[in-house]
Amino acid sequence: MRWRFPGGLLACVLTLLAAASAPARAETPDAALAALVEEAKANCEHPSDRLERILCNGRLRSGVREYYPLFGTREGTTHLGYEPDVSRAIASKLGVEVDFVRVNAASRIPLLAQDRIDFAIATMGHNTQRDGQVRFIRPHYYQSETVLVAPKALRVRDWKDVAASTICVSVGNGSNAELVSRNTRLMLFDEAGVLPDRLRDETCTLAAQDDSFFAFYFTDPAFAAQFEPKMGFAQVPWGMGVARTGSDKLARALDLVSQIFHRDGVFLDIARKNRIGTAFLEKQREVWQRPECNTATGSTNKDCILPALDTALQPTPFVGRVNELEDWFEKIFGLDVTLPMFKTMPALSLFVNGVVNSLILIAGALTATLGFAIAFGFALGSESRLLRWPARLVTVTLQSSPIVLTLVIAAAFANAIVPYSSAVALVAAILALGLSNGSNAGQAVSEAVVSLHHEGRHSGMGLFVQALARSATSIVSFLVNAAKGTPIASFIGAPELLSALTDITSFSSGRVTTYCLLLVFYTVVVMVVVWLCNKLRAWLERGEVRA
Amino acid sequence: MSAFLHELWTDFVPTLLSAMVTNFEISFIALALGLAIGLPLALLRDRGGGVGVGVSATIIALMRAAPTFVVMFFLLNVLRDLSLFGVKLAMSGVMTVAVSLVPYSAAYVADAGVEALRQLRRGSPLGALLFLPNVTRAFFVIVMSSGAAAAIGVPEGISMILREAALLPTLGQRLVVFAIGIVLFGVPLQLGLALMRWLQRELGRRTMAA
Questions:
Q1: What is the per-residue pLDDT across A118-150, written as a single tens digit (0 to 9) for each?
Q2: Alpha-carbon gap, residue A205 to A52, rounded angstroms
Q3: Residues contacting B163, CB < 8 A, separation 6+
Q4: First CA to last CA distance, chain A
Q5: Nearest by Cα to A122 from A61, A78, A171, A173
Q6: Inter-chain Cβ pairs, chain A and chain B, closer than 8 A
Q7: Residue B76: closest CA among chain A residues belongs to which residue?
Q8: How many domains does chain B have?
Q9: Contact (Cβ atoms closer than 8 angstroms) between residue B39 and residue B109
Q10: B contact test, residue of A200, A206, A408, A433 with most B CBs within 10 A
Q11: Annotated domain spans of chain A
Q12: Tell me, what's the ipTM?
């Protein structure tokens, strides 16, 4: 007799085995949201969370911007743009009406804390500093990056092409620190709104700002025909924010809604409708469609969400004493003194390097000026035409070139020989300042040589030393001029103090104190140089008397 | 290359020349303010008595030591946040650069003015007239220094040169643009220096004759 395994029993066993070996099916965000909403609606008698109040009142107060083209604008009573549309979609998902409240960059967080809005969706970058002020919704609903915009004809392929270039930025922009670290020179403006106009009127050749900001201007055919984004950097995720207290359930609901909106392409459709960039949203849709992310706990899964941008700057060990000093100035003199260069390690490092580089630059410029003065004086005063005429040509050329142009030419030559670096800019500046001032001083030396010839003195080293002594006043005046000219080296990216302090003020406050200190520093240094040069002149003139 | 040079000649050179008007505008303002401040300081330095001499000498020494480029950034970043009797002190780009050149021009005028007053006291009016070529020299130094305005985005001559150069692909082409800039800035400078030398020679000749 043949034994037969019953077919029905086999099917049951296989089904049970399959069920036992498969992972437990995770709760979907949709189911979790539905449960949360039901639970919140049940607490209308005693609402303890903003979500309960919203659902029971049937109204959601959304803080939006009103002058951020494509993202949040208002025409009459109608709010337009990506963020108001997302607000409407969220309200629709929760089954409530939306009330728009105007916010700006400064007011969006305080209005949350004052309970005047339920949530803010207002171009707010999610960084570690803001994490302590608001609860950010995960996943993020958008991501911006800083773009470098320039005329189409300008060739910019990577950072090397913009090293030592001047880039127009707005003060306080989060990406300024990165631009500084790329050896660029910043031109600061108080408002980002002026940057497109400064590009158009050619005040700026390069401007850096959020791509979301420039997106509107690129919808203008004339602007788009003339300029283009060259490269993007410093990506910042944008997050909706809710108050840190009394909004736990609301935050959870918005987390789940955001997950669903990414997964289903709702964010993407709204972005397309408003003609904003969609690359980030397309990637996010792929992420939130993945099984491991499309769960009720996806918004806490580190493999699915993006980290906040880490913008916290390491404080100096003595930041407390610096704050006390600022308070003391305020209390005693009523002066609002701010010392950002002593408060964070990156700023302190820039400041110290700036001071050291300035002193190196001044010492180098003085040495180069003296050296070129002797060389030009020797060549211009020489009896050989082969030496005299080329030296004269170079002198006239250098005299005819504004110092800024001489610096730029020196930097162009230097960069053609070796790759750009701060040290190269420093050396190029020393040579340019030395050549420019040394050629003039050399001319004075050669005139002294001629006058000594007229007095019947014989040629030779003795005569040349006497000529140096006779032209001491001119040499000293050009040495002082060289020292005074050193801050111009910042124009070609030499990391001296002016450059360092401009960099510091681009990402911190305290411009007034900073530039006052700068003026005092350079004035004192030049006065010391004047004093030393007068000693040198006296020594040289004593030499002439002895001769 | 000829197309490149033709474009420079027809497009860049006229643009540069018109932008250089701003350099001269800046220089005229700086020199006028320098004369307005420097001449009273010279008088005070020469005839002000103990305190007057001390005060004017200190002011002149400080102005002489103040680097133009730093003063420009100081004015740009500090004054725009301040107001006096409710009036905002913020200045236009051109005025910022012109005022930043005033410490130099005022100190120079004061020094030349003191020397001129000494010559007058010695009974040499022609020697005192050397003040004029000295001021001419200061004017051309200021014209050359006004190129610093490029650093704060004022559309003057140097800005135009740098903007044009930035758009060119090769170092050779950029050097041609720089050379044109040197020639166009150099011609007025060299003419001015020649005028100054002629004035000095002429005054010297007359002094000898007197």
A1: 999 999 999 888 888 899 999 999 999 899 999
A2: 53
A3: A202, A205
A4: 137
A5: A61
A6: 138
A7: A515
A8: 1
A9: yes
A10: A408
A11: 29-139+239-300, 142-236, 340-546
A12: 0.90
